[in-house]
Amino acid sequence: MPLDQIGQTLASFYDALVAEGIPEHLASLVRQVRQSETDYAAGSAAPAPQESERTNRLALVVEDDPQVRALAEALLEETELGVIGCDSAEAALNVLQARGGEVALVFADVRLAGQMDGLQLARAVSTLWPRARLVITSGQPVARPEVPAEAVFIPKPWRALDVLVEAERAACTPKPPLR
């Protein structure tokens, strides 16, 4: 299944359109996102926002390794962006659905917990939240055609300066107009 179709399916879900006749594996993904949204609303899928997350612009760190996620979060907390960490693409989508207009930066690993990987998340973000700056990272080589054109790829181990530069660009660059 091409990633573009997954992004389109998520877009149709996000816009509350009823998708009839979609393949079962896409219907399963939509049901999962709906369940995750219910869990998030109940407070179990993502941590509650902290005071630093109440800023106007947010950085979303999506990494399944708790130590690497904590390192990226600590680094990004030194910027003017509020920081929210997620261990899966599904948890990140929940945050984006709730606060997508505030998200300036999505910093995501390719390998994630859950059924979606970071590249699928990046495609969904570039389709649904085109104003968010995308930074994809991985310890494994990734072919450029797999990474959305709007995304920046930073290989692991990443340098703090590279991450901070992207955060600064996300924080200082005015939101582009929606197409």
UniProtKB/TrEMBL annotation:
Domain Response regulatory: 58-171
Cited Gene3D superfamilies: 3.40.50.2300
Pfam family, one: Response_reg
Keywords: Phosphoprotein
Entries under InterPro entries matching the protein: Bact_response_regulator, CheY-like_superfamily, Sig_transdc_resp-reg_receiver
Recorded superkingdom: Bacteria
Residues where 4-aspartylphosphate is found: 109
SMART domains given in the database record: REC
One Gene Ontology biological process: phosphorelay signal transduction system
UniProt name for this protein: Response regulator
Protein source organism: Methylobacterium soli
